Amino acid sequence: MPTTPSPAGPAPHADPQLAAGWTHWFGDHTAALIEIPLRIGLIIVVLAVVRWVAGRAIARIVRHVLEPSSGEDEPRTPRRRGRGLAVLHRDRSRARQRREQRARTIGTVLGSGVTIMLSLVGVAMVLDQVGIALGPLLASAGVVGLAIGFGAQSLVADYLSGLLIMIEDQYGVGDSVDLGEAVGEVEHVGLRLTHVRDLDGGLWHIRNGEILRVRNDSQDWARAVLDIPVSHTADLDTVQRVLEETGQELRQDPAFTDLLLEDPSVWGVQSLDADGVVVRLAVKTVPQQQWGVTRELRRRVKGALDEAGIDIPFPQHTVWLRTEDRARVPAN
């Protein structure tokens, strides 16, 4: 019986021209399909490694900032510096808060800056790999950055000044400062603003870019200065002896012995006024304690001068008397 051929016919074979076309297409686009993604991936990996290394370095800086200073480890132990004793006396909790704030802010700023810089570099390198021209983009970014710089130069100055204040540790939370019109205790230090609480309870918000000079009464040591007026008839040697004895009694008082860094000393005659002679008494104290020491010195000096019979002069006044003939006669 004859065999009937299958209606489907012979099995089809792949078109050699189509296979050759796909081979050529893959060969022509090998860079786009394999090399470029590999380069982009390598760029991302390298930038990630650099960011990790930078993060470790920033963490080390933060730990260094958080380490207490030697003055805080020994809160009331005097140490020699320059021409006299010096000590850093701050409340432990506030000092810890100050260090944590500085470390947190500096770490955040450095981390954000490194991340932004690496991100911009990564985007530029990726765009270069995909064939996008960077020249027009850089020119446009430069124009935009210049416009933003002119418009927000005061804001940039505030942030830069705040960062330098923290890095240089010019002042911190709990310090007593004089920033011009704002005089009081620092409650917050930020990159843009500093908050100061004055003696009357008012809260000052000062832009860091406007701070031109700072007087910090909470660093190293302070000085209590007392000017004592005495009459012209008073014996200055006796006055000096009374003041020195009063200062020694204060230094030996257990309530004040830790607040004084040296023996009170009489500097001598400060001025010769029409009403009397002004003698100056001064002593180094721990920071932020000079006002209390001055008040106590003033109280003790008043009692000691009274016991020694030394008068504190009063200003002379001129009184005009009117006689019957309406002539004016001055009387002292």
Throw out a few tags for this protein.
single chain, 332 residues, alpha+beta, five-stranded antiparallel beta sheet, three-stranded antiparallel beta sheet, 8 helices, 48% helix, 19% strand, elongated
Write a structural description:
It contains eight helices and twelve strands. β11 and β12 form a beta hairpin. α2 packs antiparallel against α4 (92-129). The strands form four sheets. The chain has a five-stranded antiparallel beta sheet. A three-stranded antiparallel beta sheet has the order 8-10-9. The chain is elongated, with a radius of gyration of 39 Å. It is 48% helix and 19% strand. It starts with 15 loop residues before the first helix and ends with a strand. It is of the alpha+beta class and 332 residues long.
How do the strands and helices of this protein lay out in sequence?
Elements: H1 16-28, H2 30-66, H3 70-73, E1 79-81, E2 84-86, H4 92-129, H5 135-151, H6 153-168, E3 176-178, E4 183-189, E5 193-198, E6 203-207, E7 215-216, E8 222-230, H7 236-252, E9 265-272, E10 277-285, H8 290-308, E11 319-322, E12 328-331
Antiparallel strand pairs: 1-2, 3-4, 3-7, 4-5, 5-6, 8-10, 9-10, 11-12
Helix pairs in contact: 2-4, 7-8
As laid out across the biggest beta sheet, the strand order is 6-5-4-3-7
Total number of helices:
8
Q: Which spans of ≥5 residues are poorly predicted at pLDDT below 50?
A: 71-90
Major sheet summary line: 5 strands, antiparallel
Q: Report the helical percentage.
A: 40-55%
**Total count of strands:** 12
Please report the distance between the alpha carbons of the first and last residues. 162 Å
Strand content: 15-25%
